[in-house]
Amino acid sequence: MKRFVKKLARHWKSTDFFQKMLLVLLTLLAAFMLLPIVFIFNHAFKPINELFLYPPRFFVQHATLENVTNLMFKTQSTAIPFTRYLFNSIIVSAATLIAVILVSSLAAYAFSKHEFPGKKLFFALTIVSLMFAPEAVIIPRYLVVAKLGIMNTYFAHIFPFIAAPVSVFLFKQFVDQIPRDLIEAAKIDGAKEFRIYYGIVLPVCMPAVATIGILTFQGTWSQSETSTLFTQVESLKTLPYYAMTLTNGLANNVVGQGIAAVVTLLMFLPNLIIFLLFQRKVIATMANSGIK
Hints:
Keywords: Cell membrane, Membrane, Transmembrane, Transmembrane helix, Transport. The chain has helices spanning about 1-15, 15-35, 35-45, 50, 65-75, 80-115, 120-130, 140-150, 155-160, 165-175, 180-190, 195-205, 205-220, 225-230, 240-245, 250-255, 255-290. The protein is an all-alpha fold.
């Protein structure tokens, strides 16, 4: 017994043994964390009888495309087809993504490399705004959107999310790393502000662009707040709102479960694909911004 314990202790002290054990543990943890993703894919292809089984089954037994068919064809006979909601979500997410990156990067460039009255105050207010929960600004957002007269437009989906304090903060961490001498040299060579921003600032901030792009897309693609509060025209509402209506009421709670499962999968897939494509940029952003 003592020999076995000593042998095990020697193996434990061995770096290779420790690395192999760590690899096994991480593999098991990764497999465990993949279970929700596997469930989402299985759930979308379950027939109606398997969706209401008790106890529920994790894996689909008789996979079917009936839910996909119902989503694509049965909704075409309604007043607003599914494709309209999908189109609105794509337009809103893309426009919000571009607007947030442009506004946040320009604001970060101004905060980092320019001097103007109230600079420290405005940046402090930007940091303080990080403390406010989204629920705390719903009423002010509604009042601003109503006063601007953009209710029932695409701008009502986009405008409330353009001001992104987290995005400004992350961008500023990257812009701070650019030497002022480099910017001054560019100005001496005749470069205008836009040329400096496009040719020097943005290339340095590409990891932050990828990270902010992921965060912004996830936030806008899955939110239904703007469709509920700022839009009464059904043809301007987005996919998350449509997903909510599929299970509203007693009848829809039963009939709409299959279609809702497919819509949930469609809402999840873009987030998964984008994150897998740009995950290295996210890690680089966290390392450079000082966030642990």
